[in-house]
Amino acid sequence: xxxxxxxLGLAIISGIAVLIIGMxxxxxxxxxxxxxxxxxxxxxxxxISDGSxxxxxxxxxxxxxxIVLVFSVVIGGITARLRI
Length: 84
Prior knowledge:
By secondary structure, this protein is mostly helical. It is 81% helix and 0% strand. The chain has helices at 3-40, 50-79.
């Protein structure tokens, strides 16, 4: 058996472990983002300036960016073992 077949299983298991740890980290991010939105008063768009609107937008998309980053790392780690 070639070494690709042997290391692919390990890559998949490692990828699943990274995915689980990455998704657990989201639970630590969300309360801080909620506090940030309250402090920046993101619920009332009339009372915030343009810079604050950008910061509220970044805070809203942080969890989505984190999930995309974790999936990219996992898929990259698994497919790195599939090179010809």
